[in-house]
Amino acid sequence: MAARAAGDRITSQPATRDLPRTSETRIARTGRIAGLDGLRAIAVLLVVLYHFAPVPLPGGYLGVDVFFVLSGFLITTILLAERDATGGVSLRRFWRHRARRLLPALAAVVVVCVAAVAVALGIDRIGGASAQGSLWSDLLVGVGAQIAAAATFTSNWLTVLTEQSYAAASSPHLFGNLWSLAVEEQFYLVWPLVVVGVIGAGLAVRKAAYGAAALALGSAGAMALLLDLGSDPTRVYVGTDTHAFGLMIGAALAFWWNASRQGTRPAWWPGRRPALAAGFGGALAIAALAALMPWDTALPYRGGLLLASVATAAVIVALVTVPATGRALDAGPLRWIGERSYGIYLWHWPVFVILATGIDGGRLRDATWPTLVLASVITVAVSAACYRWLEVPVRRRGFRAALRGLVDWLYPVEHDRSSLQAARRRRAAVFGGTVAAVLALAASAVAEAPEQTTLETQLDEGAKVAAETSASAAPATTPSAAATAVAAPSPSSGASSPASGASSPTPAPVVEVPDGARVQVIGDSVTVGSAGALAEALPGIRITAEVGKQFATGVDQVARLAGEDRLRDYLVVALGTNGRVGAENLERLLAAAGERPVVLVTPYGDRSWIPGAVADLRAAAEAHPTVVLADWNAAVARDTSVLGPDGIHPRADGVELFVSVIEDALERAAAL
């Protein structure tokens, strides 16, 4: 991300000379803006901590918005400084500098990480294919598209497209963090043209600032309006149109600051004390939002992220108005991290995904301490190495000179003129062979990548089974259907029986349990993935389940089936994974179900609405004598290893547990 990718010093040099490429925090004639590297460090630490441990820092993702504001401010300041120094802006030079700053590290991350997964998969195959091998293969699904998106600066739109497949979103993309870099790269391509247009039109800087502020408000408004509270917010979060307000706020601030440096300071620009107060308030706001604003609620998209961006701008105002305020932020470690923040951001996610796959079975949200510590150490180490031997040399000397210097450093020789040329050829051959081997590994991984993840295959197979059960299902009510006699737990009467669903069954008299021909299941992707096992355990069962189904949609289906007299004697509802349940939806469900027993399956997952959904379902079970609770949530909480990497969908042993929880509830329902 560009604010992380500090790469240009703003200076007053003739148009025929390149601007020195050291730090974007070097501002013409005013020296370095103290504190911006420290602000970068805080931003990248927020993002890394959120990815590594989201529970204690649910709003850490807003570090991306801090970067956006920094990028908008610094890039616009660079362009305006060149205009002030030379009378114009060299777009070619600007884009060349951006390419030198961004592309080397990006290419290294992509090639090295894909090659690492290929090696891990190869080792697993040599030792005999295993379940672990399927996890490595899952990481390579769609990796070719991810690489193409990274190369074309469209990773955010790839994220939007793949989000249409719920299962694909449930398996982490190896380069899922590149969406924000894509937003910034699109900004780099378009915004300089806008600034050149502003300069060519002779528009006053202050008017340009108001225009940028208006664009920011438009983008934030689009995010708020396009948010669908009943669906995943990914589209509005990663879309360039809906998440450009931070960049525009930073750009507006740069225009205003440029005006103030030319003696036309806006009337609202604060003095020293108000600037300090604004900066302190902004820092507090960022800290509070990082601690209290989960990603999957409405707050971030209807003002929360906009507030974080404004708060970041307030901090920057304090830094540029009172330079001494940045000294604390530029303490040694923070400045060191800030200078390497671009590499840290690029490396941390794929490194974490690879380690979590190898050590924790792909369970990112349940990553163990060894994984977290090792991921942190490796991220810092490779980022520092990449910065030292790749990013800085390319930025300062260009691609060819940097490559020659790297080869010389890796393979030093005595500077004997008679042998120097031959030695350089040998070193180039060795280095080129190493690079070619890594590229070949990465290319083979892309070529052999499977088309579907294990979960996608499981869901496709389950969907076929569910469709078959619906097509061949028996009539809705089958009083003569066979019943199976089994030992079942002794049911409690009244509202108390459902509440005991999570307790251990106790021996009881034999009761009749409905066979599958009398059971109707309404479910989401968890049910889809378990459809085969359900059909095998309860022959004749009818399964109506779709990926991503909301509880309200399921209630509508139940009402329609009841109106058509096609609802079976026993109704199982396994919904709530994808959104809220709500007492009003439960009342509609039970009204449509009538007097027949209803089994409510509690959902499990690390999503903000799950606790509320579970509470609603348990309350309904306690309040209605015809409702039985199948407490999947409680069963999984005792052993989350039965779940796949997404922490929602069950593995093979988890599918068995899911079916047994439903069977147990049906046994109790038959005794009502």
TrEMBL record:
Residues 34-388 form the Acyltransferase domain. It comes from the Bacteria. It is an enzyme of class 2 (transferase). Its EC number is 2.3.1.-. The keyword Ribosomal protein does not apply. It is a multi-pass membrane protein. Its main location: membrane. Residues 466-505 have a biased composition (Low complexity). One of its GO terms (biological process) is lipopolysaccharide biosynthetic process. This is Acyltransferase family protein. It comes from Demequina lignilytica.
